[in-house]
Amino acid sequence: MTRRGPRPLAMHLTLSASVLTTSPAASLAARNGLISWNSRVVPQTERLSHALHDVDADDFAAVVGAEAGRRLGSFIAGVRAYHEHPWRRSDRSLDVLWRSGSTSLLDYGGSGLPLLLIPSLINRSYILDLGPGEGFCSWLRSNGARPLLLDWGEPGDTEARFDLDAYIADRLLPALEAATAITGVPMPVLGYCMGGLIALSGALARPDRIRGLALLATPWDFHAGAISWNAPLAAVAALASRPSAPPVPVDVVQALFASIQPGNVETKFRAFARLDPDSDRARTFVALEDWLNDGVPLAAGVAADCLHGWYRDNLPARRNWISLGRTIDPAALDCPVLVALPARDRIVPPESARSLADLVPHATRIEPNAGHVGMVAGRRSLSTLWQPALSWLTALE
Predict the structure, then answer these.
(1) Helices (H), 22-56
(2) 194 and which of 12, 120, 213, 236 could share a cystine (Cβ 3.0–4.6 Å)?
(3) Which stretches within 52-87 are classed as H helix?
(4) How many CB atoms are located within 10 Å of the residue 119 CB?
(5) What DSSP assignment string belongs to 337-394?
(6) Secondary structure class of 177 (helix, strand, coil)
(7) Dist. CA 310–CA 293, nearest whole Å
(8) Which runs of E-coded beta strand occur in 119-183?
(9) What is the DSSP string of 226-275?
(10) Distance from the first to the final alpha carbon of the chain
């Protein structure tokens, strides 16, 4: 998909994050012990409070205000540079092997081993083939594979009534049937993030169509790790639980993820302001940021299944997740499995994904030194994921 027009969403999210994280008032409150700190940083904050005890309050406020102004200025410069950057994602013409409703199966071509890639339902599928250079799917094609990408599209009138099982039964499994009918052979399936759980259910439903399963940054234990999503998840779940609820809006979903590390938004734009706009690093930043701001609504039934069943009740880790009438048990997989555990993932903490790997007999593990998105589309993705994944795929032939 070509990204056209202004880039408005980043400004709204980043400006609010910057104000919150650089506020002099917040700094004074911290100095006076009025902020409830995360227990992991309490010792440091106590030492800081003690060191500042005799500092003049007006002098302190002036210093903090000056630093806040400096950071806000560089942050705004970064946002402006992003908005004005000339790079735009180009349209790419791909054959559509199969289509149902808003979902399409895209064929990257090639004469090598066919494989099916399944992204999350929350963001656009082109994260698995992100510019500005050659993305994952294009690189796989250039290196002897035939990637088939399942593009969920935006929920239409039909999909707006879907839950997770409907997407698996009425979209994933027919797409897998269509792919194997065209290629004539069972194929490896690569699932990314939420797409990994969808792929896992599909693999257990149709093991005769699966040659191998790769689970990339796929969560399993939703209560693992240090991140607590309870409060924001409860708010979003309330939207999704109403009778005949419409899809959860893009902005709500993005705000949920932005709440994990609100200060990161300010930091990354301040860093972007220092980059050469003609550099590959700057173009990669723009490509990723455009993708982040190009999300899709989430069908209310899917949101309820994920937020209630996964995040609140932790059904997968408790071995109580029922999909298509069966309990989803990774130990029942009877095919080669690759599990990628990005070490710096904040969306899917490594502990969450590792609990899945522990259940899969003889799983091959890789642990890229990357984050959730950087693993598949960052500057180090070639060495941290693409090449190891291709080696694993080649061994299946």
Answers:
(1) 24-31, 42-51
(2) 120
(3) 57-84
(4) 25
(5) EEEE--TT-SSS-HHHHHHHHTTSTT-EEE--SS-TTHHHHSTTHIIIIIHHHHHHHH
(6) helix
(7) 25
(8) 145-151
(9) S---HHHHHHHHHHHTSTTPPPBPHHHHHHHHHTTSHHHHHHHHHHHHTS
(10) 32
Task: Please give the backbone phi and psi of residue 253, each rounded to the nearest 5 degrees, phi first.
Answer: -65, -45
Q: How many CA atoms lie within 13 A of 240 on its CB side?
A: 28
**Cα dihedral sign, 100-105-111-112:** negative
The amino acid at residue 146 is R
| pLDDT tens per residue across all 397 residues of the chain | 444 455 654 444 444 444 444 455 555 555 555 555 556 666 776 777 777 777 777 777 788 788 888 888 899 999 999 999 999 888 778 999 999 999 999 999 988 899 999 999 988 999 999 976 689 999 999 999 999 999 999 999 999 999 999 999 999 999 999 999 988 989 999 999 999 999 999 999 999 999 999 999 999 999 987 555 555 565 565 555 665 778 888 877 777 777 767 778 888 999 999 999 999 999 999 999 999 888 899 999 998 898 889 988 999 999 999 999 999 999 999 999 999 999 999 889 999 999 999 999 889 999 999 999 999 998 889 999 999 999 999 999 7
CB contact at 8 A, 183 and 193: no
SS3 382: helix
140's tokens = 């796989």
The CA–CA distances, whole Å, from 135 to 68, 128, 366 equal: 38, 7, 20
**Residue 251, both tokens:** 């902005």
Q: How far apart are CA 201 and CA 5, in angstroms?
A: 38
Which tokens is 208 given? 């005769």
Residue 383 to residue 20: CA distance in whole angstroms: 37
Task: Sort 100 into a burial class: Cβ within 10 Å, 0-12 / 13-18 / 19+.
Answer: middle
